[in-house]
């Protein structure tokens, strides 16, 4: 039933784009071309479905002439989507929706906090990145 309602709402969204075809792509089938188009902000008709249960590997890049980032295959990191939502980039503004019809920007859709801390455990210093993200 939920998929039927979501499909109906997405079809209603398509009606809002008179000359543009709304393209809904799941994270599991997204191509590099679609990612580039979406990130450009010039294709608000591309909607990314972030389905509950999807797991994404995380890579972290850090460039500096002062520090280097060491990675280990023993500590893989991934992101699991716990609740489905939709995301699009509307001319440079990332928008989010529960059903693909009513859209809000990041700060109206989410609330939370981010912190970067230097900590020490057993006299071994480490960097802790702490983030909390909740649906408003």
Beta-strand residue percentage: 35-45%
Mean pLDDT: 80
Distance between the termini: 25 Å
Order of helices and strands: HEHEEEEEEHEE
- Tally of extended strands? 9
Number of H- or I-type helical stretches:
3
Compute the gyration radius: what is it?
Answer: 18 Å
Number of domains: 1
- Structural category is alpha+beta
Query: How would the global form be characterised?
Result: elongated
Strand order of the largest sheet: 1-2-5-6-7
Characterize the biggest β-sheet. 5 strands, mixed
Helix % is 10-25%
In short:
With 136 residues, the chain is an alpha+beta fold. 21% of the residues lie in helices and 38% in strands.
Looking at this protein, list some descriptive labels.
alpha+beta; elongated; single chain; two-stranded antiparallel sheet; 136 residues; 3 helices
């Amino acid at each position: 039933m939920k998929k039927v309602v979501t499909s109906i709402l997405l079809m209603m969204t398509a009606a809002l784009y008179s000359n543009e075809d709304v393209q809904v792509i799941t994270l599991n089938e997204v191509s590099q071309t679609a990612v580039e188009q979406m990130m450009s902000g010039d294709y608000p008709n591309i909607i990314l479905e972030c389905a509950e249960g999807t797991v994404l590997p995380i890579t972290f890049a850090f460039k500096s002439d002062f520090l280097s980032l060491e990675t280990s295959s023993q500590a893989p990191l991934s992101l699991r989507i716990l609740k489905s939502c939709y995301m699009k980039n509307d001319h440079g503004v990332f928008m989010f929706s529960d059903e693909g019809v009513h859209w809000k920007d990041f700060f109206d859709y989410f609330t939370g906090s981010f912190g970067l801390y230097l900590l020490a455990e057993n006299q071994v210093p480490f960097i802790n990145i702490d983030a909390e993200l909740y649906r408003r």
